[in-house]
Amino acid sequence: MTQLLEIAVVIPTFNEKANVPTLVAKLDQALAGRRWEAIFVDDDSPDGTAEAARELGRIDARVRVIHRIGRRGLSSACIEGMCATAAPVVAVIDGDLQHDETLLPKMLDLLQRDPDLDVVVGSRFVDGGGTGEWDRDRVAKSAFATKLSRKVLKGDLSDPMSGFFAIRTVHARRLAPELSAIGFKILLDLMTASDVPLRFAELPYTFRVRTEGESKLDHVVAMEYLIALYDRMFGRFVPVRFAMFSGIGVLGVGVHMGVLGLAMLAGAAFLLAQILGALAAMTFNFALNNALTYRDRRLKGFRQLLDGWVSFCVVCSVGLVANVGIAAFVHDFRDGGAAASALIGILVGAVWNYALSSKFVWGRY
Ligand code: GDD
Ligand code: MN
Question: What is its main location (predicted)?
Answer without folding.
Answer: membrane
